[in-house]
Specification:
Subunit structure: Homotetramer.
Family: Belongs to the NnrD/CARKD family.
CATH topology of the largest domain: UDP-N-acetylmuramoyl-L-alanine:D-glutamate ligase
Number of helices: 20
CATH class of the largest domain: Alpha Beta
Oligomer: single chain
Shape: elongated
CATH superfamily of the largest domain: Ribokinase
Catalytic activity: (6S)-NADHX + ADP = AMP + phosphate + NADH + H(+); (6S)-NADPHX + ADP = AMP + phosphate + NADPH + H(+); (6R)-NADPHX = (6S)-NADPHX; (6R)-NADHX = (6S)-NADHX
Number of domains: 2
InterPro entries: CARKD, Nnr, Ribokinase-like, YjeF_N_dom, YjeF_N_dom_sf
Bound molecules: ligand NAX, adenosine-5'-diphosphate, potassium ion
Binding site for K(+): 65, 125, 161
Helix content: 25-40%
Number of strands: 18
Distance between the termini: 18 Å
Strand content: 5-15%
CATH architecture of the largest domain: 3-Layer(aba) Sandwich
């Protein structure tokens, strides 16, 4: 099944639709508080041994997040745990369901102070959740800093207080939680950094909201899971017993041919990594295209990968006319000389699936008088028109192409990486892979997939070249651009995680075969990401 991600605004709509259908808001709050209390008991029992013999400190804020805290306080006390509760406002300042919850708590409400947790075994952070409207500052920020220094386990309700639910940005003080319990569906901040790093283990619990509300709320993105792309998994990467008998006699030309443009003699490693990765990802043939004076050096460093010199636009035309190529990759250490830049512009006019990475992305900005890429060249390319244009920028390349959506601007204006990636995909007409510890894959029609799996081992030279090669290899076999990007990012991340420390980019393509056996476990059902029409239509 799809795992949808809802913005706090969409979540508020889900709450409201449920309330409109006859469920009391206070009932939802009680379910949320119960889930928090359950999680707290698990954590307490792990810390204090079984039996209700520990103390919980609950920090409540002025809104419904605080309301969840009051409910949890009451339930934990009923179960025999010692509870001490502080609130950022007096009971007279509470309203609605939060006021009801505070009245039902009935016990003492202290002012917030570090003294509250001095004897505690666990702190529950119910200060702010979806309603955070600005970074936390002043006395509350000091309190959060002290809490983070206390070394006590912290359970956050819905979101770690201070983290912006929509963008995952952490502008002011933020609670550093060991565990976060959220409700119905995850929010962007549970997946996007830095927010995700503050959440600890995330548990998403059912509080009685019906799935059907999603038809009305829509969703901002989905999580990247094999169910999205497993149905388009190439035959050649399946275990022999799963291959369609009619495909057992396939030859290499059925598995597609990738052409990878290559840089000069001193910069050919990146393209060679991409080429090898495309082969490992199942492309039937892969050819590297270096400039003439680098051809013998490149040829000396490859074996199954072929070499066809491409000096200029004319020779690219000749090479493309000679054989059928299914996918063209341009970027890894391509260089930004006049010649190589001309190749990128020429490739944009050709009717072939096109993956632009690294230097090819920079070529779209470098040497342009206005300093701005002409995105209409991308949008109107045959590749984009046939939904076969892919861009794989890291944040630096993304900032050059889309300066108004850069990481810096996002932080300044508190914009979400998801919204910005979707906007960039719409402007460029490309399936866009905005790489990072939280990679966002976005499509021109407004869909987004998030792969959030901090694997710092992947932050190593050449790792992005491998990713673009994997995506190209999958597309060569007929996988759609979106499915190939999602599957490629998944495989890349898994490879990094399974290898662990010491990983270098050369290791990554060699890890793919063992991952294909893992993928085989998912082959029993699913649907294509490319068939998914998004949540808000
Ligand atoms: N019926 C519902 O809507 C449900 C809501 N639930 C809980 O309600 C939460 C959302 O509740 P609210 O919308 O009341 O929002 P919050 O409780 O997250 O916070 C809103 C309050 O905080 C204040 N505030 C925001 N940023 C601040 C800052 N930086 N410094 C000081 N004060 C600040 C606002 O003025 C407002 O009073 C969710 O996170 C979830 O925990 C759950 O109880 C489930 C049901
Ligand atoms: N901390 C991290 N967690 C997960 N993935 C990461 C992390 N850091 C980098 N990556 C991934 O590693 C790859 C690096 O790509 P890139 O920056 O283009 O490197 P290069 O240009 O050296 O090939 C991207 O796919 C990115 O998503
Ligand atoms: K919270």
């Amino acid at each position: 099944m799809l795992v949808e991600i809802l913005t706090p605004a969409q979540m508020a709509q889900a709450d409201q639709l449920t309330i409109d259908s006859g469920v009391l808001g206070y009932q939802l709050m009680q379910s949320a508080g119960q889930a928090v209390a359950n999680a707290a008991v698990d954590l307490l029992e792990r810390r204090t041994g079984s039996g209700a013999s520990g103390m919980v400190c609950i920090l409540c804020g002025p809104g419904n997040n605080g309301g969840d805290g009051f409910v949890a306080a009451q339930l934990l006390e009923e179960e025999g745990w010692s509870v001490i509760l502080g609130c950022s406002v007096g009971i007279d300042d509470l309203t609605g369901d939060a006021l009801l919850a505070a009245e039902d708590w009935g016990d003492e409400i202290f002012s917030l102070s570090p003294r509250l947790w001095q004897d505690a075994d666990l702190v529950i952070d119910a200060l702010f959740g979806a309603g955070l409207s600005r970074p936390i500052s002043g006395e509350l920020a000091d309190l959060i800093d002290e809490l983070n220094l206390s070394g006590l386990p912290v359970l956050s309700v819905d979101l770690p207080s201070g983290v912006d639910g929509t963008s995952g940005l952490a502008g002011g003080a933020c609670v550093k939680a060991d565990q976060t319990v959220t409700f119905f569906r995850k929010k962007p901040a549970h997946l996007l950094y830095p927010g995700k790093a503050f959440c600890g283990d995330i548990f998403c619990v059912d509080i009685g909201i019906e799935e059907q509300v999603l038809d009305d709320t829509g969703h901002i993105a989905v999580e990247n899971q094999p169910v999205l792309w497993i149905d388009s998994w190439p035959e050649a990467l399946k275990p022999i017993a799963d291959i369609d008998p009619l495909r057992l006699a396939d030859h290499k030309f059925h598995r597609g041919h990738c052409l990878v443009l290559c840089g000069d003699a001193t910069h050919s490693g990146a393209a060679r990594l991409a080429a090898r990765s495309a082969l490992r990802a199942g492309a039937g043939l892969v050819t590297l295209a270096p400039p003439c004076d680098a051809a013998s050096l490149v040829a000396a460093h490859v074996t199954a990968v072929m070499v066809e010199p491409v000096q200029d636009v004319a020779s690219l035309g000749t090479v493309l006319a000679k054989r059928t190529y299914d996918v063209l990759v341009a970027g890894p250490a391509l260089g930004k000389t006049q010649d190589r830049r001309a190749l990128v512009y020429d490739a944009l006019e050709r009717d072939v699936a096109l993956l632009l990475d690294a230097d090819a992305l920079s070529c779209l900005v470098d040497g342009i008088e206005s300093g701005e890429a002409d995105l209409s060249l991308l949008r109107e390319s045959p590749a984009a028109r046939s939904e076969r244009l892919v861009l794989t920028p890291h944040e630096g390349e993304f900032a050059r192409l889309f300066p108004d959506l850069s990481h810096r601007v996002r932080e300044e204006k508190r914009l979400s990486k998801l919204d910005c990636a979707i906007t960039a995909a719409q402007r460029s007409g490309a399936v866009l892979v905005l790489k990072g510890a939280d990679t966002v894959i976005a499509t021109p029609d407004g869909r987004a997939v998030v792969h959030s799996d901090g694997v710092p081992y992947l932050a190593t030279a050449g790792s992005g070249d491998v990713l673009v090669g994997i995506i190209a290899g999958l597309m060569a076999q007929g996988v759609s651009a979106l499915d190939a990007c999602c599957a490629g990012v998944w495989l890349h991340s898994r490879a990094g995680r399974s290898f662990g420390p010491g990983l270098i980019a050369e290791d990554l393509p060699e890890l793919l075969p063992s991952l294909y056996m893992d993928v085989a476990g998912y082959l029993s059902g699913g649907f294509h990401a490319s068939d998914w029409t998004g949540g808000d239509d």
